[in-house]
Amino acid sequence: MKFCSLCGAPVTLRIPAGDNLPRYVCDACEAIHYQNPKIVAGCIPEWQSRILLCRRAIEPRYGLWTLPAGFMENGESAVAAAMREAREEANAVVENPMLYGLYSLLHVSQVYLMFRGQLRDGAASPGAESLEVGLFAEEEIPWEQLAFTVVRETLRQYFAERRTGVFNLHVGDIIRESDDRFRVHHYY
Amino acid sequence: MKFCSLCGAPVTLRIPAGDNLPRYVCDACEAIHYQNPKIVAGCIPEWQSRILLCRRAIEPRYGLWTLPAGFMENGESAVAAAMREAREEANAVVENPMLYGLYSLLHVSQVYLMFRGQLRDGAASPGAESLEVGLFAEEEIPWEQLAFTVVRETLRQYFAERRTGVFNLHVGDIIRESDDRFRVHHYY
Q: Can you tell me the distance from the alpha carbon of A173 to that of A183, in angstroms, rounded to the nearest whole number?
């Protein structure tokens, strides 16, 4: 950020009075421009013993597999956002979504809200952001071709837990340790 | 938003190619400025049969009672944000936080993540944003003096459920029906 989005004057990064973190503050109108984490809402669409994955037609991670997920919009419900992403990326209708994972990705200031839900009729086809979509049994999951650590972690928990028949909410942080190495901190 | 935060030129609200919602787009550098919901992280600090509330020393809702909660920061974990707010607003240490409520406030584009946790030593005192803090038994909750619908709803669920001895995650939307009337939609 270099300019004030309200008046167009330059901004300076400084700690406003009464605050304890640097913010972009307008040199002219003194507006404080807070920057906050974004929410990514997504889901695990279930169909019998399979789950739906999408192969990405966009960067980053073009060509790799992921769960339907994307940025929540203003004025939207988190639940609706997760269902919308399934519709947009895979023409999939997800029913009865239940929150399954809450992950904070510190290095990109994103919070993932991952829901588990039933894929209506097992029906799906690629949306504009997907090269292909598919229903995968556990032994078919392309573990080495998954797009993101948060997706791998969500699926790992999901299949481990499915054997027990009880799904519990998982809360964790994903911390970047180097360019391509991430650590998952589990709260529970 | 009137000006591009990257180059200072005017922005226009329009639907970018390949998108389906209006965004602020820079007339000069063509940067697209997405706006997304903000996360408010908070908690219910528990101490024996009481919970901690804070009386607000800031607007909005100056003088009314609330749970410790505030905007999550970039680079922060959602869990850490909830604990930080308890520390800042009530000098309170909250242990073992468990997600208890996920509420989308459509009219202000906020997502509340409310955790339940134990207040260490029952110790609390007003932080800079609180006039006073207090530990309340259920029959002492100032229901008519609560600052926000999301706080009232969270506490209502909490006390109803505490009688059963089992706490479940609650997911809902809070919808403004008029200036001072809100409706809660419960997913579960």
A: 8
